[in-house]
Give the backbone structure.
Amino acid sequence: MSGTDRIRAGAAVAVAAALALALAGCGLGAGSAPIGVSLLVTQGFGARTVTATSKPKIVGADTVMRMLERNARVATAFGGGFVSRIDGVAGAGTSDWFYYVNGVQAPKGAAETRLHNGDHVWWDRHDWRAAESIPAVVGAFPEPFMDGYNGKHLPLRIECTGHARSTCNAVQSVFAGYDLVASEGCLLCSTANQTLRVVVGPYDTLKADPGATLLARAPSASGVYARFEDGGRRLALLDAAGATVRTAGAGAGLIAAIRWMGQPPAWYVTGTDAAGVAAAVRAFDAPTLDDHFAIAVLGDVAIPLPDGER
């Protein structure tokens, strides 16, 4: 086995929960096919589309793997351990295929993950050097708020900090446009962890939130290619290798999703100050978020993260 193969094999073990186990690639048998399912295949953290369909071929109780095989040319590697090639695009070096259902990295292999109504299935080939696991992304919006994930619908809660009430109301209005009802409250006021949380406020007001603290650390901890610095007064935008491309101060915003200790994903609409939060709120819509893992907002310009991928 070559050195490159050894590296890729080691990575496959490290991220086995996120990669597609295609041991058999079989569906779960007869049953009604789920409706409203979509399939997206991209490269480079969503930067380049390989294939996309809002009406993929599905038969009975298909798994994610069987749906992929019905709608794309698929090859596997390492004894069928994970997907190595989709429609001619192969993993190589430190880049491999990962998949998400409704914006959440799946905890099981694709051959074991069954489809549910409304599932947005997203395969992306990207560099895992800086983050072997990216547990949640924002680019499937309005999922997972619309249809949940793993077949479960969870209550939606918007948590406001500081003087973010008006911006919270603006986020509430976005969800209302999808006929989604959200409760509003203060940070961590609810003891229930089976909710989908959207946290709105300047980063320096979020430090009591354990998930938010990850946004001051490297992508290997947060899964987000940005990092708050100087107590939240500065936002560093990172490339796929985790290196800083640029740093922004006042007025910088961020929209990102975090999973803390296996809890449901929490979304953070935050920034270096109140102006940065307001900029992030203005970017909080499907056209801006679509197909992006996270976005920074500088001067009302949305920048997909990692920086420099587009």
